[in-house]
Amino acid sequence: MRRGVVATLVSAAAFGLMPVFAFYAYGTGMSVTTLLLLRFAIAAAVFLGWLGLRGRLGRLTGRQWATLALLGGGMYAAQSLLYFTAVQRIAPALAVLLLYLYPGLVSVLSAVVERTRMSWSVVGPILVSLAGLTLVVGRLDAGLDLPGVLAAVGAAVAYAFYIVLGSRVSASLSPAVTTAYLTMFATGSFALLGLALGGLDLGFAPAGWGWAAAVAIVSTVLAIALFFVGATTLGPVRASILSMLEPVVAVLAAWLLLGGTLSWPQLAGGAVVLAGAVWGILATPVRGDASPGDPAGEETTAVSASP
């Protein structure tokens, strides 16, 4: 149990540092598309290489290939693009707080997909999160970048759809295999996007390679691997609640390292958003969240680790 708690908390801290790493990467002249391509290319190489050495890549059916292509190359890539765009345009702390609208959205979407009654436990989390959102955003005419805010909210919506769909179609694969192929397809999407729009440019300052590696290794490979360890031991719901340390780390890191500040109403709104997120996690039925170490529970977490 202690091992699972420590692994989950370290994972959350690693995820929480990602907006700060991205901010520094942008400072070297790196574009959003380039950073995401490097992030997923490095992560995919590590995950696929590790599975290949262990002989665990396995054979996928045509339907599994198509599903992973949709999830990784489409939905996960879109969510990442929106989130990293938000980090570039608004304060990283604000971006991560807005992202945490997704647990409430997941509870509503799950009820719709499962065709269950919209009880207070379903509607309540999203209403609480929206109330917090009004405090976090405040007055849009007060110098806040509206496209950046919309990108962060769009990332939350995209991530909610990704989780709801992915948890129902990827249960036949282990989380390690799923993650490896998701990152591979996301790499392909950003390579194509960069070539089509001309957004790929390796002419950034040399320090950018270090920040891109930090995003890929610390905030992707290490963070995801440790989340799987925690979720396998604790179960997905308890691990997800402990992962609420992520936005706390993101806000503190932005304050200490970037000098960014949020107003007291924004901090209060962030706390309300996170309260709605915890409620949404508790209200969402998670398939396979049985005993610690249950393989079914581990598989469910394959698509519910943080972005």
Please explain how this structure is put together.
This protein is mostly helical and 307 residues long. It has one domain. The protein is 77% helix and 0% strand. The protein is built from 14 helices and no strands. Helix 1 packs antiparallel against helix 10. The radius of gyration is 18 Å and the shape is globular. About 6% of the residues have low confidence.
Summarize the structure.
It contains 14 helices and no strands.
- Give the tally of structural domains: 1
Could you give a short account of the major beta sheet?
Answer: none
- The outline comes out as globular
Compute the gyration radius: what is it?
18 Å
* Low-pLDDT segments: 287-304
The succession of helices and strands, N to C, reads HHHHHHHHHHHHHH
Structural class by secondary-structure content: mainly alpha
Number of strands: 0
Distance between the termini: 25 Å
> Approximately how much helix is present in the residues?
over 70%
- Counted by DSSP, the helix tally is 14
Q: What portion of residues belong to β-strands?
A: under 5%
| Integer average pLDDT | 81
List its traits:
mainly alpha; single chain; 307 residues; EmrE-like; transmembrane helix; 14 helices; globular; membrane; transmembrane; AA-Vitamin_Transporters
Layout of secondary structure:
Elements: H1 2-16, H2 18-27, H3 32-53, H4 62-89, H5 92-99, H6 102-114, H7 120-137, H8 146-169, H9 175-197, H10 207-234, H11 236-242, H12 245-258, H13 264-283, H14 295-300
